[in-house]
Write a structure and sequence with these properties.
The chain has 247 residues and is mainly alpha-helical. It has nine helices and no strands.
Amino acid sequence: MLEHLELFFKSIFIDNMVFAVFLGMCSYLAVSKKVATAVGLGAAVIFVLAVTVPLNWLLDQYLLRDGALAWLGPEYADYNLGFLSFILFIATIATMVQLVEIVVEKFSPSLYNSLGIFLPLIAVNCAILGGSLFMQARDIPSLGLALNYGISSGIGWFLAILAIAAIREKIRYSNVPPPLRGLGITFIITGLMGIGFQSFGGMLTGDNEPPEDTTPTTVEETEGKERIEEGIEDDEKAVSYNDVINE
């Protein structure tokens, strides 16, 4: 359970797709002018990551990695289909994005029109492909953790685009210097938000190393430690004696 919580919070705040590795910046900048549009695209990204990362985990475990085909028989144990990772990952992502596009067009035509070309472009969004590739590189051990990583990575991207959209809506009425209007102030705000998100790294850090064992292991070390302790006691006695004389 602790492993799931650590992965969840780390993927949202510390390893955020936008603020830590700067993936998905094209749609992050282009579709973040209105909160309503940002919420729709962010929800679509969460869904796509939540579905594609576990599916690609299954593909990686039982088809792509070295020795993954051993379940077909011992004669297939030496096969390595890792060179097909990009093709199969992108095919899985494109299938899910097409499904999302059909659903959004059916139930929310206004959102479909506002998202425009960026909805089908989720299929080639580097944040979506990055989720599957990071899952593969980190060698996530179970399907549950892969699902957790997909959902939490999507939530992190959703929070990033939602926050910048809310700020950009308010900043229209601010007196921004002319050279910084538009993308200039947006990049500055993004950098500051990235610093803020990185500060959450202290939540998962701590002294996990066991305390150093200072117990003497040899006779010489034991005698040396006793002499040091005796010397400290003599110094303390001398200090207390001097205090009495001074009084």
